[in-house]
Amino acid sequence: MIKRHELFDIIPEEEIERVFSYEYCELSYDFMGFTDVYKALSAIIPLHYTIIDLGCYAAAQSYYFLRHKQYIGVDVFNGERFITPNSVHYIKSIQEFCSEDTHYINLDESFAICSYVPDFSAVKIAKRIFKNLFVYYPAGIDREFSKMINEVMYGQSN
Known about the structure:
Elements: H1 13-20, H2 36-44, E1 50-54, E2 70-75, E3 87-91, H3 94-100, E4 110-115, H4 120-129, E5 133-136, H5 143-154
Parallel strand pairs: 1-2, 1-4, 2-3, 4-5
Helix pairs in contact: 4-5
């Protein structure tokens, strides 16, 4: 038996129905995305910080940041997204957002997240702009991919 995801206890039912009814939605009652990292981060990021989720997809994870100052979701995904009272969404690439919209953000009190973002140029730009940046890509990825991530983040290879 599959355990019910805890986000279903947080997200209003009408929000779930709205997003899940989108024809190309990749989320379901069995899969809410890769949200565990977001839950952990929401517990340690100060509540007065703005969260910038670079590569947010449908943003189910935005519900973990309800108590934070603001949640900004950035993704080229043009489908239905979860919308919280404190959320703002941009339908654009990470590169476009970083070059066009970050001057409105207090970078001292913001925290950017790149979770499962395979675009290395986007990660590199985010690293250059955001003082507080968390980049996550799961273990088990191939060696070449791991090498590229390390080069982008730390200027070194494995």
